[in-house]
Amino acid sequence: MVEAKNMCMRYSKCGDNALEDISFFIDRGEFVFFVGSSGAGKSTLLKLIIREIKPTEGELKVFGRDVGRLPRHRLPYLRRNIGMVFQDFRLIEDRTAFDNVAFAMMVTGATRREIRKRVPHVLGLVGLQDKAETRVCDLSGGELQRVGLARAIANRPAMIIADEPTGNLDPGTTFDIMNLLRSINLRGTTVLVATHNRDIVDRFKKRVLYLEGGKLVGDEQKGIYTHVH
Ligand code: ADP
Fold it and tell me: Which atom of ligand 1 is nearest to the CA of 9?
């Protein structure tokens, strides 16, 4: 599903490598944490997977395709199959929960009928069936991220990428959101989560890829937050 081979990423010609000689393979249906301190390269890796940027060297395959060589017209296919979840939610504040999810479907060309059926369903999956008509600015932090998750799964993506999804949430809400991500994963969606949150990594016992200064220094099944060299 995601395969990196000796991948390097340098933002400028004279700069240091943001990622250096990265190789890994993530299979369909996996749940993977990317951990590492600030500046380790987590966001860079996620940006490469969604082809916001291209690797400087090496190869990165997503859904079997080398994204560094992906023609522009294939980008919508790639992006439609990846649901994004952000630390700062990135919702449209003055619109309802329903609208926020509906917009994500509209841009992929879904019909009104599909939207009317699917949006209440996904809001139900994240426990927000009663908040469909509530404007996002009236929701709590945890509810905001539930809308974020509903939006991410609305188009039935093969993969969810979450960049610090619980970075703005309190500990209780953090676990609710992580449990939702786990249940989305159990339904077959591959889930990649970049995080600083030691508690959730230690508690969830999933695969952990450890980044340090742009290098992949560890890859553990059922890993814990602290990597032992
Ligand atoms: P993390 O997400 O783990 O905090 P990043 O991927 O944001 O790490 O950063 C990895 C390295 O790449 C850092 O040294 C950072 O300064 C550098 N970097 C990130 N984004 C850019 C950019 N747009 N231009 C130049 N350097 C960048």
Answer: 12
Encoded tokens for 211: 């980044």
- Residue bearing the CA closest to ligand 1, atom 14: 39
pLDDT digits (tens, 9 = 90+) for 138-188: 999 999 999 999 999 999 999 999 999 999 999 999 999 999 999 999 999
How far away, in angstroms, is 19 Cα from ligand 1 center? 9
Q: Is 15 helix (H, G, I), strand (E, B) or coil?
A: coil
Query: Could you give the CA distance from residue 142 to residue 167 in angstroms, rounded to a whole number?
Result: 11
Angle at 39 between CA 38 and CA 45, to 5 degrees: 110
Q: Is 43 in the pocket of ligand 1 (CB under 6 A)?
A: yes
Polymer length in residues for the chain: 229
Residue that is written with structure tokens 């990265």 in the block: 22
- How far apart are alpha carbons 65 and 56 in whole angstroms? 17
